[in-house]
Amino acid sequence: MSLLENIIYREDYAEAMEYLANRETKHAPKFDLVNAPVELQELIGQAYMPRGEERSKWLNDFVERCWSVPDGEAELLLGEDHLNGIRYVNHYLRKANQKLKQDGFLVVSFDTAAKRRVQFYSKYPKFLADFIYFFDFIWHRFCPKIALTRRFYYWCTKKRRKVFPRPEVLGRLYYCGFDVVSELYIHDRFCVIAQKRREPALEHPSYGMIVKLDRIGKNGEHLWVYKFRTMYAYSEYLQTYVYENNNLQTGGKFFDDYRVTTWGRVLRKYWIDEMPMLINVLKGQMKVVGVRPLSEQYFKLYKPEIQQIRIKSKPGMLPPYYADMPETLDEIQESERRYCEEYEKHPFRTDWKYFWKIQANILFRRKRSK
Hints:
four-stranded mixed sheet, Rossmann fold, single chain, 14% strand, 17 helices, alpha/beta
């Protein structure tokens, strides 16, 4: 049982929220508010004031004033409502991007999915909270992502009672052209300070159970790799943000990657998330054994000579990593170098040898993805 589960009983709501605030902002970037624009400092200062009519009036007047500025001229915007209550969130964030100057600031707030869980467990006895939370999760987190139930869900809720995990909102901000410069809890609501850096993305990201991920394939060409979703929606847009604020752990993965869901860790542990890659194999874009197809962010971490070696052949479902079990990024690159050089000389024999060595590590030594 996690620390959070131990402290979310009725009498411990404040303690649970304090723990949650520390946990959800653990890897947030350090933002120097002292050197921020004066108007932004004043806004955050007012937001921290005790809740009351005077505070609400000041914030409402600020919202009305800042959104009345012509497009492309606003230096600072405050969200007109918390994001859970906005019907079309991406459309709203795109509108904010259009309203702001380049490098202008947007401040938004929302209640995270983790806070919603705390609210249930602090209000009801644990056995009842377990029951209510399970059905709330199915309704608000599962139904919107399934084609058969999505339309009915939005008809019932009018898209105004959405539940957002923190990584999804951060990813939506990046998708809509913002960089996150600060994450903070003000009272018991999660707030994000974002800065306009570019125009919103044009592609339509997947929101369902199967995702298409942009990866580097043979000859450096980009391909869409199919996988079962193991991360929160829009997490693919957080690759750079997580890299800049989280350390790489053993094996080249991110330390404490909060984008991965609880179910996602189970799918990764038993390799279930990799099964849709068979589509790529059947399409001739990948093979069974080979270097893993990398995102552009990961690919840029590799030495130039290793980059050139690994794009000479198709990527694979079963990477040489699981044959050699290297620990550092340098060791991973050396492992892939050995595989690629050997594969270039003896393709079939190399893949046959690596296939059985990988199977032995997975089945008998219980090596797993994280």
